[in-house]
Design a protein that fits this description.
Length: 353
C-alpha cells in the first residue's frame, strides 16, 4: 500500500495566482484577435480581394497576433518568474564564493507573499544562519590560536633563558616548573578542543547502569589534594542512586563543576556536594561560598572560551562549562546556575531517572 504524504500548505502564502483572472486575459486576447480577423475578412469581401491577397493578409495577421501573444507571455514570465529567479541565482553564487552579506529583495510591490516571496524569505534566512555559523567558526579558530600562542610564548622564552650558564639551580628549577605548567595548559586546551569537537558531532550515548554516588565520591577523592591545598571544608550528602547513563560523559560534568568550585573558592571556604532523588529526577548540586558571579557573567558562562573572573583566567581556558553544557544536552538533562557576587555559586544538574 502506498502512503502519500501531503506537505501542509505554507501559512505565509497569502497571494495566489487567480485562475479566473488568467482565463479572462486569455479570453480577451482571443476575442480581440477574432474581432480583428472578422473586420479584416469583412473589408476583403467589400473590396472583392483575390484569394492570394486574402491568404497573405490573413497569414500576416495570424503571425502578428502570435508575436503579440508571445511578447505578453514573455513579459508576464519575466516579471513573475525569470527576474526573481535570476536575482536568487546571482545571490546564491555570491554566497557560494563566501559573501554572506548578500540578501534578495522582495519582488512584489504590495506586501503580499506568494510562493516566490516565501522562497526569497527562506533563502535570506538560510544566508543569515550560514553567516552566524561562519562567524562562530572563525571566532573559535581565533580563540584557539590566541590560547595556543600564550603558553607557546612562555615555553619559548623560558627555554631560551635556560640556555644561559649563569643561572642558579633554583632559577633553573623555577623556569622548568613554568615550562611544565605552560605545556600542561597547552595539553589541556588541546584535549578540551578535541573533546568538544567530538561531542559536537556525537548524537549517541553509551547507556550503562552504575552507581552515581560512587562516581561522585571517586571524582571528589581524585581532587583531594586540591581541596587540601586550599583548606576547603567539604560537605558531602549523597543518596544511593543507580543511574542508567553514559559514565565517562558524566565524569566530565562532575570534574569540571568540582574544579570550578575549588578554583573560585577562597582559602578556607566550603563546598557542598548533594545527590538527591526528587520525583522522577536525579538532582546533583555542587555549591560553593566562593567569589560568585554577576548576572551578566552567568548569562555567558556556557559560551566557548568565556572567562568571567579575570583574576582566575590564568588557569583554564573557558571551555569547561561549554563541555558540561554539551554533555548535559546530549544526555537530555538540565543544568541551572544560581550565583550571587561575593556570596557563592550553586550548580544544579537534573537527570531523568
Ligand atoms: N563556581 C563558580 N564560581 C564563580 N564563577 C564561576 C564558577 N564556575 C564557573 N564560573 C564562571 O564561569 C566561567 C567559565 O567557566 P569555565 O568554562 O569552567 O572556564 P574556566 O574555568 O576555564 O574559566 C569562569 O571563568 C567563571 O567566571
Ligand atoms: Mg573551568
Amino acid at each position: 500500500m502506498k502512503i502519500r504524504y501531503k506537505e501542509p500548505a505554507d501559512k505565509r502564502i497569502n497571494a495566489k495566482r487567480s485562475f479566473w483572472k488568467e482565463y479572462l486575459i486569455v479570453l480577451g486576447v482571443v476575442l480581440i484577435s477574432c474581432v480583428g480577423s472578422v473586420l479584416i475578412y469583412d473589408r476583403q469581401m467589400q473590396d472583392h480581394a483575390n484569394p492570394w491577397q486574402i491568404v497573405v493578409t490573413n497569414s500576416s495577421y495570424v503571425l502578428f497576433v502570435g508575436l503579440i501573444v508571445s511578447l505578453v507571455i514573455r513579459l508576464i514570465s519575466h516579471t513573475g518568474f525569470i527576474r526573481p529567479m535570476s536575482e536568487i541565482g546571482k545571490a546564491a553564487r555570491k554566497v557560494a564564493s563566501g559573501d554572506f552579506t548578500v540578501r534578495v529583495h522582495s519582488q512584489r510591490k504590495d506586501d503580499k507573499k506568494d510562493e516566490l516571496e516565501v522562497l526569497i524569505d527562506d533563502f535570506n534566512k538560510m544566508v543569515e544562519e550560514l553567516a552566524t555559523i561562519e562567524t562562530l567558526k572563525s571566532d573559535f579558530i581565533a580563540n584557539v590560536s590566541h590560547e595556543i600562542k600564550t603558553p607557546l610564548a612562555i615555553i619559548q622564552s623560558y627555554a631560551s633563558a635556560l640556555r644561559k650558564d649563569e643561572l642558579s639551580l633554583e632559577e633553573k628549577q623555577n623556569y622548568i616548573e613554568t615550562i611544565l605548567e605552560a605545556s600542561q595548559k597547552l595539553s589541556t586546551l588541546v584535549t578540551n578542543v578535541l573533546r568538544l569537537n567530538k561531542l559536537e558531532s556525537q548524537e549517541i550515548i553509551q547507556l550503562e547502569s552504575y552507581t552515581l554516588d560512587e562516581q561522585l565520591r571517586c571524582c571528589i577523592l581524585a581532587l583531594e589534594e586540591k581541596f587540601n591545598e586550599k583548606n576547603i571544608e567539604l560537605d558531602v550528602d549523597l543518596d544511593e542512586v543507580i543511574i542508567s547513563s553514559d559514565e565517562s560523559l558524566l565524569e566530565i560534568v562532575w570534574n569540571n563543576l568540582l574544579t570550578n568550585a575549588i578554583k573560585f573558592t577562597d582559602y578556607g571556604g566550603s563546598i557542598k556536594v548533594e545527590l538527591k532523588v526528587e520525583d522522577s529526577n536525579i538532582v546533583v548540586s555542587i555549591s560553593d561560598n566562593g567569589c560568585g558571579m554577576s548576572e551578566e557573567t552567568s548569562r555567558h558562562i556556557f559560551d566557548r572560551f568565556f572567562q568571567g573572573d579575570t583574576s582566575h583566567s590564568v588557569e583554564g581556558n573557558g571551555l569547561g562549562l561549554s563541555l558540561v553544557k554539551r554533555v548535559v544536552d546530549l544526555i537530555h538533562g538540565e543544568i541551572q546556575v544560581k550565583s550571587e557576587l561575593g556570596k557563592g555559586t550553586s550548580f544544579l544538574v537534573k537527570l531523568s531517572k
